[in-house]
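Appendix B. Raw example, untouched.
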Amino acid sequence: MPGENKIKLIALENWLQKLTGGDNTLALVLQVFIVVLAVVVTNFFLRRTLGKLELSASQTPTPWNYALVSAVRKPLLLLAWILGISFAARIIQAETDNALFEIISPARTIGVIGCMSWFLTRFISNVQVGIMVQRHAQGKPVDSTTIDATGKLLRISVMITAALVGMQSLGISISGVLAFGGVGGIAVGFAAKDLLANFFGAMMVYLDRPFVVGEWIRSPDKEIEGTVEEIGWRLTRIRTFDSRLLYVPNAVFTQISVENASRMTNRRISENIGVRYCDIDKVAPIVAEIRAMLKAHPEIDQRQTTIVNFLQFSSSALDIMVYTFTSTTQWIKYHAVKQDVMLQIAAIVAAHGAQIALPSRMLHMADAGNFDGNFSGNYGDKGGPASDPVAISTAPQQVTAA
């Protein structure tokens, strides 16, 4: 087969020389022109054909067809140019015998390897996007973190393999490179220990999955709280609740505790309601009615613990503990439910003729008429004050400025 091609090329060259009247330069120009024209025509038909295939593949229900055609289109067009230009350069090299054209063969090899690796990385990215879109369309849950991590690992594997094959094709011994890597691995490890720590931290996040993209996380050990936007190999990007971006090195997540608020099953309502001391006889019916209200509330999860009890005698009130869980985990809806519960509790307290207590103090003062300026009042024989104590409330009052 190579012999037949060589015979055809010699015949083409002889025909061109006859056509140009034996002018070798003009024959060479015509050969190069024919090759370039063939590449242009081939690219034209390839572009039209692949465009139609891509359009029809986009209408299929499976993402694989579109991913393959879309990934192969640009690398294949570039490959046609690389092969055509290298063939034209070989024709010129055969006529001029210039040492500069000796790089044609390795450059063509590197170009072919680059096109193949480009196609594979595009195919992996297209499949990654196609799977996510398909699962969204089917209403199935999408684990974007795992899909993203798998895609990154596959693309890195393709790039490393392409680099090794390229070095081998250029005459560089892969075994020597691997041996150098083994010897220098310790030095590289010490030099890039932080980078490696972040890389392995990302691996632990991908494997243990304490959080994924889109979840709300916080750490009690660090000032970290917000929604995860991206998990990279070195950094995790978090959007805080004041709309700022927080970049956290992945190695941090191997050393701190992380609380995943997005995976909560309920939100808690925990409040102490203070009633006045003079309403102590009404505490029991108030507690019973609050408990009944929570049992009948449609937004309270009855599977969770609900506690309504008289808790303690505090400094200025009789504290009633209200402890329950809402069915919703949405932040806005939770506050609406909590508001409704608190207003109903206030209505129950008022319905029983009681009042919610305000902070107050009781001061005992001696009879003002017996005050002699030296803090010596009129005390009886038993050492107590001669007059009754005076109660002064220190509850906050509203003051309106004129």
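End of appendix B.
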